[in-house]
C-alpha cells in the first residue's frame, strides 16, 4: 500500500533527486534555486511513498484562467523507475483529482513534451485531451 500526501514546505528538498532526473541538463544548484522561488509562488508538491521512501512526485499549481476557471496543473510528474508499470501513476492522479475537487477546481491542465509518447498515452488514458501547443521562447 502506497501513501500519497502533500509535502510540507520543509520536505520540498526531498524532491530534488526527482527533479534532477527530469532535468538532466540543468545544474542541481539551479534546480534548487528555482524550487525555492517556486515555493514562494504557491508551489505545492504531492509525494508517493512506499513506507518512508519517496517513490514519486507531482508538482501542483492551483490557477484560474478565463477560459477554464479554477483548475489544478500537475507538473514535473515522475515515478521512480523501479516503481513504474505498477499503476502508481493512476493512483497518484486519482489523489490529485480528488484534492482538486476539494479545493474547488473544475478542471486539470498540464503540459507534456511532444516526444514523450508514453506520457501522452498516459495522460489520454487519464482523461486528458490535447487542446493546444505549449510554446516557449527563451529571452
Give the uncertain stretches in residue-range form. Answer: none
| Main sheet: strand order | 1-2-3-4-5
**Overall pLDDT level:** 95
Strand content: 25-35%
Report the C-alpha radius of gyration, rounded. 15 Å
Q: What spatial form do the alpha-carbon principal axes imply? A: globular
The CATH class is identified as Alpha Beta
Largest sheet: 5 strands, mixed
Number of domains: 1
Q: How many beta strands in the DSSP annotation? A: 5
The structural class is alpha+beta
> What distance separates the N and C termini?
45 Å
Descriptive terms for the model:
139 residues, alpha+beta, Aminopeptidase, 5-stranded mixed β-sheet, 5 strands, 32% helix
Q: If you had to describe this structure to a student in words, what would you say it looks like?
A:
- The protein has 139 residues and is of the alpha+beta class.
- It has a single domain (3-125), classed as Aminopeptidase (3-Layer(aba) Sandwich), CATH 3.40.630.
- The chain contains 4 helices and 5 strands, in the order βααβββαβα.
- The chain has a 5-stranded mixed beta sheet with strand order 1-2-3-4-5.
- A hairpin with a 3-residue loop joins strand 3 (53-65) and strand 4 (69-79).
- The chain is globular, with a radius of gyration of 15 Å.
- It starts with a strand and ends in a 14-residue tail after the last helix.
- The model has no long low-confidence stretch (mean pLDDT 95).
Amino acid at each position: 500500500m502506497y501513501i500519497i500526501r502533500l509535502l510540507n514546505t520543509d520536505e520540498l528538498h526531498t524532491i530534488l533527486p526527482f527533479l534532477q532526473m527530469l532535468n538532466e541538463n540543468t545544474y542541481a544548484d539551479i534546480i534548487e534555486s528555482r524550487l525555492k522561488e517556486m515555493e514562494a509562488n504557491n508551489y505545492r508538491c504531492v509525494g508517493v511513498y512506499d513506507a518512508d521512501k519517496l517513490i514519486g512526485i507531482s508538482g501542483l499549481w492551483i490557477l484560474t484562467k478565463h477560459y477554464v476557471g479554477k483548475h489544478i496543473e500537475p507538473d514535473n510528474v515522475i515515478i521512480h523507475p523501479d516503481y513504474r508499470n505498477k499503476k502508481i501513476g493512476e493512483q497518484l492522479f486519482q489523489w490529485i483529482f480528488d484534492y482538486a475537487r476539494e479545493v474547488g477546481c473544475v478542471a486539470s491542465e498540464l503540459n507534456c513534451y511532444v516526444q514523450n509518447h508514453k506520457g501522452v498515452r498516459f495522460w489520454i488514458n487519464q482523461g486528458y485531451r490535447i487542446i493546444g501547443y505549449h510554446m516557449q521562447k527563451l529571452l
